[in-house]
Write a structure and sequence with these properties.
CATH architecture of the domain at 170-264: 2-Layer Sandwich
Oligomer: single chain
Helix content: 25-40%
Order of helices and strands: EHEHEEEHHHHHHEEHEEEEEEEHH
Radius of gyration: 18 Å
Structural class: alpha+beta
Strand content: 15-25%
């Protein structure tokens, strides 16, 4: 690693001030992405601001038909939450299959969403469920928040504080995991919400997480796997790498989407 200044604030405003005053500051939540990046010398921040002491950012609460999850809540806590399991079982299931046990007991929902890794599960969960991302400055819908591969609307000194998930009528998440890392080669969240059906895909897009409007329209008319059996996703803007070709990922999107619909039904 390169040299950097390490900070461990105890209050949100202290963390924001430290971050904004740093020459090139980075936040550390669970560190599941940042620490390996530093070890490989792919990043050289001047300061690291560790959020581990901010207990105010951790926890799960219910407000009517909305599940509010603090940004520093670990994946294992989401998967084990009775409130999440009762209101949005698809989200609890998603969390329970992230990476391995070590990742689930260290990684946080806020870190995953802020990083917007193309193979991460939570971006599909947030986008598919129509979540709202709450930060130290504002609120953004998931449709607004994710702007591209590893990119979001977050400003340099902006910190995610919580994510608000509205309870869907029904939902399911299905993914095809990399057999080694368990990260999503393709993951699909299908949710019937108060505003209609949403279908979000992670692990496949050249530009990160995205929605499949053709499937959404078909499922709005008939929420059944047969309704999307003939709908395909073009491979023109999908990733090809050592794990899978764009053509294979396009095929997996159709398979995972149909499985999600069947599970939700």
């Amino acid at each position: 690693m390169y040299d950097f200044n390490y900070h461990r604030p105890k209050k949100l405003d202290e963390a924001a001030t430290t971050l904004s005053s740093a020459e090139d500051g980075k936040l550390v939540a669970g560190g599941m992405t940042l620490i390996p990046t530093l070890k490989q010398r792919l990043a050289q921040p001047s300061d690291l601001v560790d959020l581990a002491e901010l207990s105010e950012l951790a926890g799960i609460s219910v407000d009517g038909d909305t599940i509010i999850i603090g940004s520093m809540t670990r994946h294992c806590d989401v998967s084990a939450s009775a409130d999440v399991a009762e209101s949005i079982p698809a989200l609890a299931s998603l969390a329970s299959h992230i990476g391995d046990s070590q990742v689930r007991h260290r990684g946080t929902i806020g870190g995953s969403i802020a990083n917007n890794d193309p193979a991460a599960d939570y971006p599909a969960g947030a986008l598919g469920l129509g979540a709202t991302i709450v930060t130290s400055k504002r609120k953004s819908t998931a449709d607004e928040f994710f702007t591209g591969l590893f990119e979001t609307v977050l400003e340099e000194d902006e910190i995610i504080t919580s994510i608000e998930f509205p309870k869907p009528k029904r939902a399911a998440y299905m993914k095809f995991p990399n057999p080694a890392s368990r990260y999503a080669m393709v993951g699909v969240m299908v949710a019937e919400t108060a505003d209609g059906v949403r279908v979000a895909v992670t692990g496949a897009g050249d530009d990160g997480v995205f929605r499949v409007t053709a499937m959404e329209e078909a499922l709005d008319a008939n929420f059944a796997s047969d309704a999307i059996a003939d709908i395909t996703v073009s491979d023109a803007e999908l990733m090809s790498d050592i794990h899978a070709s764009a053509e294979y990922r396009a095929h997996l999107i159709s398979i995972m989407a149909k499985r999600a619909v069947e599970a939700a039904s």
